[in-house]
Amino acid sequence: MTPHDPNSGDELEAFPDADVAPRHENADDRAGAAGRRGRNLSRRAFLAGAAAVPAGLWMDRALAAAGGVRLGGTFLAGRDPGPQAACALPPDVLARIKRGWDPQRSGQVVIVPHGWNWVSGRISHCTPWHYTADVPMLWYGPGFIKGRGGVDRFVTCADIAPTISKLIRFPFSAPDGTVMTEALKASPPKPKLVVVLVWDGGGRYVLDLHPQSWPHLKGLIPKGTWFRRATTGSSPTSTPPVHATMGTGAFPRTHGVVDTAMRFPDGRVGDSWSRGPGVIRVPTLADQYAKAKGSAARTAFFATLPWHLGMLGQGARLPGGARHTAALKINGSTPSSPPHWGMPERLSPYYRFPSYVNGLPPLRSYWETADLADGRNDGRWRGHDIGALVGGFNTPARVPWQTRAIKEVIIQEQLGHHDEPDLLFLNYKIIDEIGHLYYADSIEMADTIKVQDRGLADLVAFLDHRLPGQWVLLLTADHGHTASPGRTGGMAVLENALRRVVEDRFDSDGDTAALVQAIRPIWLHLNPAEIADNGTKLQNVSTFIAALTASRVARADTIRQGHANDQVFDAVFAGSILPHLTC
Q1: 124 — pLDDT class (breaks 50, 70, 90)
Q2: Strand 193-199 to strand 422-428: parallel, antiparallel, or no bridges (unpaired)?
Q3: CA-to-CA distance for 267 and 352, rounded, in angstroms?
Q4: Both 289 and 384 in a single domain?
Q5: Per the omega criterion (within 30 degrees of 0), is the bond before 362 cis?
Q6: What angle do CA 2, 477, 185 make, to 5 degrees?
Q7: Which 3 state secondary structure label does DSSP give 545?
Q8: Are residues 360 and 469 in the same domain?
């Protein structure tokens, strides 16, 4: 397994904490150098080792080399929970955790799964480790973007908004991001259209598991600027926080969208977007730009879920805010019914849905794309009933269906034909969906990336024809995905099992209220009232969880022979210590 080219010289990011060292253009590189001199683990070393030995064994060796200790044959980041465990993590991992945690909205107890392990709730990509945090970052646009190929500076998704603002010459203050100056030509004219294209779940690890599946993207790299050391910049590596980072140039501890689920002021834990776009605490570039330019520019968006709206903004919810053109998926009447495009009722006052896209050919018209993706014209995809997969939505057929609708929006909204640059934000989520259903190293994933890559070529050709030499593309991702346990040796930690053992150990006050409100892949939300009623100390909870073994909380079919007594976490600690760490 070679997730990246071992000869590329890429290395893990190792930013300083922003509270200690304010970001400026060269801070990332100096932090990376400092990490390489100290505890940080280079990507070259990681991947060379991963190619030579089984992944699970190599992760043990690599993490130990990065500063951990080994107890009873099992790696732990620190001998005790708390500050020692946190500070024993590689600097880049700890930096991502710090940037992603908020004292009001995040869980109180942070958990860092060991190596390739993950906390399983059908979410297999929310880890602070590089294989879920590394993302592609390609800028392309002849006349605006340098055709220099690979660049070796550390960048994050927080750098996207300030780079766009530089391209369109619009002043925007990004709290945590800086301009990716290496990509931009000197004093170019303004582009007529800037397209931000997110391959949801299509992180570098996922792409490089299938190196033959994305030739069109590879073909654009020498014509544009490709940042080899790009990461999400924060943890958790999940869709809502990273999309909000793209839109605001801020990390979650600043913009407030910390996870798919978060704690609200009333103490409830729920979907971060369930109470509307006001979840975002700082301005997005698109909101400020659309308000300032009015009818002189258009902002549009096409995606799947409300979580994706973070890269666009709050729209008309803001005083004087623009009602951005936006489309999302609306579920069908049954689990197997195909969805249609729309805007959830609770969000419709803030965005304008382009209803004309539902007059285009239906999803079923594109089933042939899924049928032929495996090379067999047999009415199925890799043996799967296409119609049973949400009417074909959870197959590669989704890509051309969505692309056709996106083209219609570009035509109808006259994107690229206004006085000022237009902005178009896109998310294709099928790679992520396939990762959840079949793992990152599946043959289904290889098929899906191929079709997504062909969709990229189709969209580029369409824009080149419609706006020759007048548009810019950024292609990136919001996270990677986990490969199958058979490849990595990773174990799935069951949320229900973890909840049960914590409740059994610490919730003894005899009432019906649960101590554990929610378990997320990167932290636990505990009920503050129950903490008080039970006299629970977060240090005790951390100590207990840190000692848990696979036999108690891991899914049985993912436990390797001889590893039932392995501890499943590398570090467990109260999030409240993060602002006070001196490491």
Answers
A1: confident
A2: parallel
A3: 32
A4: yes
A5: no
A6: 100
A7: helix
A8: yes
| 422 and 506, same domain (yes or no) | no
* Residues β-bridged to residue 525: 518
Domain tally for the chain?
Answer: 2
Beta-carbon contacts of residue 462 (< 8 Å; ≥ 6 apart): 407, 410
Q: In whole angstroms, give the CA distance from residue 183 to residue 150.
A: 10
In a domain, 168, yes or no: yes
d(CA 426, CA 403): 10
Instruction: Please give the Cα distance from 86 to 95 (Å, whole number).
Output: 10
Terminal-residue alpha carbon distance, the chain: 33
Q: Could you tell me the two tokens for 55?
A: 């992944």
Given a contact cutoff of 8 angstroms between Cβ atoms, the answer to whether 81 and 573 are in contact is yes
Q: HSE of 200 in the Cβ direction (CA atoms, 13 Å)?
A: 23
**Which of helix, strand or coil describes residue 21?**
coil
Residues 64 and 109 grouped into a single domain? yes
In 10 A of CB 37, how many CB atoms? 9
Please say which residue of 461, 481, 501 terminates a domain: 481
Q: Are residues 282 and 397 in the same domain?
A: yes
Q: Which of 444, 466, 481 represents a domain boundary (last residue)?
A: 481
Burial, 68: exposed, middle or buried (Cβ in 10 Å; 0-12, 13-18, 19+)? buried
Alpha-carbon distance 508 to 516, whole Å?
12
Task: Write out pLDDT tens, residues 8-60.
Answer: 333 223 222 222 222 333 333 433 433 333 333 444 443 333 333 333 333 44
Please report whether residue 266 resides in a domain: yes
d(CA 53, CA 485): 15
> In this structure, are 463 and 500 located in the same domain?
no
Residue 519 has pLDDT above 60, yes or no: yes
Question: Which helix or strand (DSSP H or E) is residue 95 part of?
Answer: helix 91-100
Residue 333: domain span: 131-481
Burial class (CB in 10 A: 0-12, 13-18, 19+), 510: exposed
pTM assigned to the model: 0.89
- CA distances 340 to 311, 405, 579, Å, are 22, 11, 44
User: What distance in Å separates the CA atoms of residue 323 and residue 348, rounded to the nearest whole number?
Assistant: 9
- Residues 342-356: pLDDT tens digits? 999 999 999 999 999
